[in-house]
Write a structure and sequence with these properties.
The chain is mainly beta. The protein contains one helix and six strands. The chain is globular.
């Protein structure tokens, strides 16, 4: 339920924010607004590297966190992610 700012370092992707589709590539920045139902999608053949900045730690410190789960995440791994490994070059 709190906002986030994303800076795309490598790769290209697509976000869906409350039904609106946004395309982005390395060097682009985007913001997820408070209460926005959103999804991040990698459109490239390689992994993406994205820097995410959130105000959540400040909200926790100030006891201002009112988050709730919109939908529980699925327990199964999405198709294509079976062999995912964290990047080692970071």
């Amino acid at each position: 339920m709190n906002s986030a700012a994303f800076f795309v370092l490598t790769g290209k992707g697509r976000d869906i924010h409350d039904g609106e589709v946004m395309e982005y590539v390395a060097g682009d920045a985007l913001v997820v607004e408070n209460g926005c139902v959103h999804q991040h999608i990698n459109r490239g053949d390689d992994q993406m590297l994205v820097l995410v900045m959130k105000a959540k730690p400040l909200f926790l410190f100030m006891h201002l966190l009112f988050q709730k789960m919109v939908e529980y995440p699925k327990k199964e791994v999405p198709k294509g992610g079976e062999n995912y490994q964290l990047p080692t070059h970071i």
